[in-house]
Write a sequence for this structure.
């Protein structure tokens, strides 16, 4: 075999390797592109997303009363707290809390869990909260338990009047969704 | 024996030939019992072909025609207000549009049903509470839902046109039919054709000489604010385009993705072919 | 020639040896899809087995995800399908892949079956292989039919009514069987529910029979366009990379056409009436099955007269089912000693006439049963039966075949103008599919 032929062979070999790699890569790209719709279809569909925002008329909620609405398939409590409840909430020191973070989607994620930070400004008597226990997802009962807030019957978690976890297995304060008072009587959640 | 076989084969070919001729003749003598009596005119739609897109202004006009004319009798059950954003409306416009409708909802805390303004997540409300009511109010024939009408009607293409349709991508039989039907009233029936009482002659109607639906449109009936001609023909075209969108809202993205897929498969096919040639280069086959 | 006879698999790693000693699945895969010898002269008609496996996989994958959004209830089904088309992320794509996929599955299976008929792939020792294929075809038809009912459009409903009506033609127990199938006195919610259940089950049964089909194939080995059995190692090439890359190329070409239909004309092969929700009180003006059933539908409608004690309804149903049963016994109807049509000039001619007959039947199946069409359907049906019951057995006895080469290698070399085997290599060059 002459040197010339040998050189030709390596060029051929390189070209062949390149072809195989290019074909293989294109195959992988194709397979991945086909896989995407199969994953994407599992995400919430357009009709579900359309219900991701609800507007609630709270004109009928008197002091000391609550209203429960369904938002994204979960119960959201809108509670007009009594002065006593707000007072109790404000009197708690941060150091007494099991979870010192506000868990309020309207605030930065590291905001401290003061009573004010569990609400939105100017509406501090109003609690708007996803009423789902942060332990394993049961629905706590309102105005019960040792702290006068919420009590989860499943595993005995106790929340205070601002929905903060005080006792029991739940790790976090109950979540506050994004919400806004669009008028005196209407809350938009989500 | 060879002769027998030859004979048999010839017989088969002759038989096939007669069959084709006979069938062609049969096609010509189509009886008046076949509908529609006139095939629809084939229009050129913006959404036809491999790069077809919806004309948003046309869809907005079509929506206006549906709203001011068709919706008096025809529901659009499958279409949600939120999807009107496809027509180029903003969130606020969609919200305002939805709020113009009253949606029957409930029960409330007292157990009563109530009406409330529509929300973007609602669908177009139907003009009649149920099919029986719709039939009773319209001389016994319930006006069909229009959500899928542009896909639920087709044009008989026949041989060999249906084969050409594969290459021309003709899928606009539905809108062609709707346009022809909606604008096909007001013609004089041919001699000898009797029109049943309470029905209207329309040679483009797919299942009879006449329909229970009264002529829906007149020139100038719907006011357009974009300068488009306010004629029956234009109304019919616009509402047909709107109904095509209502039936196939993802048509545009389908064709866009399709083009990319076809290009990819072309390139991938060439690569695999070259690989195949390399692999088989040393094997005679 | 079987690749199963002695394995050449040698595990390279310690883990490979460990697995091989316990459950030699990698060995099975290696022997079946890497080292397995295939005739070197297979043309592209032989790539449709691979394409069919791909289509089965795709149909199962899209079907499983569609079932995540579909509601098998007569009140909800139609709207849930429209929910998939409108609201589910990429739902329109998955649904069009599935509905168009059914048609392309049948296109592939018809090419596969006609290839088998043309090259005599059903002849000994491959009769079981052929019968397993026929079983897969039957299961495919059942699956496709029940799947078509699920969108609960007008064609779904009336198609289900007509097809389950076949069984009412059976004497004495017919009505009972029909009620058993549809779970009521007319097609309704119970029918839809059980069809959904079975439509989800049957593809996995198909997959099981496919495994048997491939097993039988790998015992007897593939046939090839010459119909001559593999005689020496030079007649074959290893499955990988030769057959895999060729199958792969064919798949990409097939997917190209598939994608064209999905993205540009997804409703071309469907029927407009199925976009109208099922209405038990109103029949569409014409009830037409999906295109892949049309030839059988034409045979069903061809019998419009009573035959002795058999009334026309039962006669039509028997003729239709009989036309499928015939496929099962083809290996014994064909008396020819020669396998491939390449060396059977008369069979080749009748094969193409048969294809034309089937296409004509399909065309008539889509036409209304009036005018000349019922007569044509009857002639077509008679020819269909005659092809299997008269032409195949008689032709095998009286036909003079062409001279055949001694081996695959010889045929290939003769075709490529090779001079190594000048004598006796009279195989005519056949065009590649």
């Amino acid at each position: 075999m002459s040197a010339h032929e040998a050189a030709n062979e390596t060029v051929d070999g390189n070209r062949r390797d390149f072809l195989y790699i290019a074909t293989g890569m294109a195959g992988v790209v194709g397979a991945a592109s086909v896989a995407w719709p199969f994953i994407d279809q599992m995400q919430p569909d357009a009709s579900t997303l359309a219900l991701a925002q609800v507007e609630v008329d709270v004109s009928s909620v008197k002091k000391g009363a609550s209203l429960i609405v369904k938002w994204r398939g979960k119960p959201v409590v809108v509670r007009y707290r009594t002065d006593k409840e707000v007072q109790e909430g404000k009197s708690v020191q941060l150091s007494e809390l099991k979870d010192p973070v506000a868990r309020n989607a309207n605030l930065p994620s590291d905001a401290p869990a003061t009573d004010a930070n569990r609400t939105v400004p100017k509406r501090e008597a109003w609690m708007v909260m996803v009423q789902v226990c942060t332990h394993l997802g049961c629905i706590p009962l309102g105005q019960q338990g040792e702290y006068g807030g919420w009590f989860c019957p499943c595993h005995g978690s106790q929340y205070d009047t601002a929905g903060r976890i005080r006792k029991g297995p739940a790790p976090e304060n109950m979540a506050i969704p994004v919400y806004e008072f669009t008028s005196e009587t209407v809350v938009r959640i989500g | 024996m060879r002769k027998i076989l030859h004979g048999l084969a010839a017989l088969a070919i002759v038989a096939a030939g007669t069959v084709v001729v006979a069938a062609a003749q049969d096609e010509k003598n189509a009886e008046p019992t076949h509908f529609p009596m006139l095939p629809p005119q084939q229009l050129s739609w913006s959404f036809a072909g491999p790069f077809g897109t919806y004309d948003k202004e046309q869809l907005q006009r079509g929506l206006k025609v549906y709203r001011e004319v068709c919706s008096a009798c025809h529901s659009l059950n499958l279409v949600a207000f939120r999807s009107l954003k496809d027509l180029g409306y903003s969130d606020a416009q969609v919200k305002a549009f939805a709020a113009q409708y009253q949606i029957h909802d409930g029960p409330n805390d007292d157990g009563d049903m109530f009406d409330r303004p529509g929300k973007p997540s609602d669908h177009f409300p139907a003009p009649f509470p149920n099919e029986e009511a719709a039939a009773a109010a319209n001389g016994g024939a319930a006006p069909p839902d229009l959500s899928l009408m542009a896909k639920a009607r087709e044009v008989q293409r026949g041989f060999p046109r249906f084969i050409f349709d594969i290459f021309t991508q003709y899928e606009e039989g539905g809108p062609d039919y709707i346009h022809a039907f909606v604008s096909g009233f007001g013609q004089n029936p041919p001699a000898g054709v009797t029109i049943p009482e309470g029905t209207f002659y329309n040679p483009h109607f797919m299942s009879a000489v006449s329909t229970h639906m009264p002529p829906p449109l007149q020139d100038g009936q719907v006011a357009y604010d974009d300068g488009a001609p306010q004629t029956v023909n234009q109304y019919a075209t616009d509402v047909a385009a709107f109904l095509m969108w209502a039936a196939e809202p993802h048509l545009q993205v389908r064709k866009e993705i399709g083009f990319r897929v076809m290009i990819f498969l072309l390139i991938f096919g060439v690569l695999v072919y070259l690989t195949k040639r390399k692999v088989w280069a040393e094997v005679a086959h | 020639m079987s690749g199963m006879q002695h394995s050449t698999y040698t595990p390279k790693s310690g883990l490979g040896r460990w697995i091989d000693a316990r459950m030699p699945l990698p060995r099975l895969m290696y022997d079946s899809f890497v080292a397995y010898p295939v005739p070197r002269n297979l043309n592209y008609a032989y790539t449709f087995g691979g394409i069919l496996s791909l289509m089965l996989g795709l149909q199962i994958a899209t079907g499983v995800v569609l079932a995540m959004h579909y509601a098998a209830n007569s009140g909800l089904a139609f709207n849930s399908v429209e929910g998939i088309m409108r609201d589910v992320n990429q739902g329109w794509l998955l649904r069009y892949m599935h509905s168009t996929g059914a048609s392309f599955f049948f296109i592939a299976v018809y090419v596969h079956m006609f290839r088998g008929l043309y090259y005599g792939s059903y002849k000994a020792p491959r009769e079981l292989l052929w019968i397993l294929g026929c079983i897969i075809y039957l299961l495919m038809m059942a699956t496709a039919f029940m799947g078509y009912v699920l969108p609960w459009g007008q064609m779904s409903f009336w198609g289900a009514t007509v097809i389950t009506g076949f069984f009412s033609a059976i004497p004495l127990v017919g009505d009972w069987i029909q009620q058993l199938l549809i779970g009521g006195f007319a097609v309704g919610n119970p029918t839809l529910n059980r069809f959904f259940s079975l439509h989800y089950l049957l593809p996995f049964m198909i997959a099981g029979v496919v495994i048997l089909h491939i097993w039988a194939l790998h015992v007897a080995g593939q046939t090839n366009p010459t119909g001559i059995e593999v005689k020496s190692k030079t007649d074959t090439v290893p499955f990988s990379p030769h057959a895999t890359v060729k199958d792969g190329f064919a798949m990409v070409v097939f997917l190209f056409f598939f994608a064209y239909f999905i993205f540009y004309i997804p409703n071309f092969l469907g029927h407009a009436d199925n976009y109208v929700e099922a209405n038990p009180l109103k029949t569409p003006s014409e009830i037409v099955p999906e295109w892949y059933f049309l030839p059988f539908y034409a045979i069903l409608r061809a019998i419009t007269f009573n035959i002795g004690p058999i009334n026309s309804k039962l006669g039509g149903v028997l003729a239709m089912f009989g036309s499928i049963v015939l496929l099962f016994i083809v290996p014994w109807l064909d008396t020819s000693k020669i396998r491939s049509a390449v060396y059977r000039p008369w069979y080749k001619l009748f094969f193409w006439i048969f294809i034309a007959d089937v296409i004509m039947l399909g065309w008539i199946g889509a036409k209304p049963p009036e005018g000349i069409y019922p007569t044509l359907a009857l002639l077509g049906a008679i020819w269909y039966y005659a092809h299997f019951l008269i032409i195949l057995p008689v032709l095998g006895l009286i036909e003079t075949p062409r001279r055949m080469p001694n081996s695959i290698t010889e045929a290939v070399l003769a075709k490529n103008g090779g001079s190594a085997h000048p004598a006796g290599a009279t195989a005519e060059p056949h065009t590649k599919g």
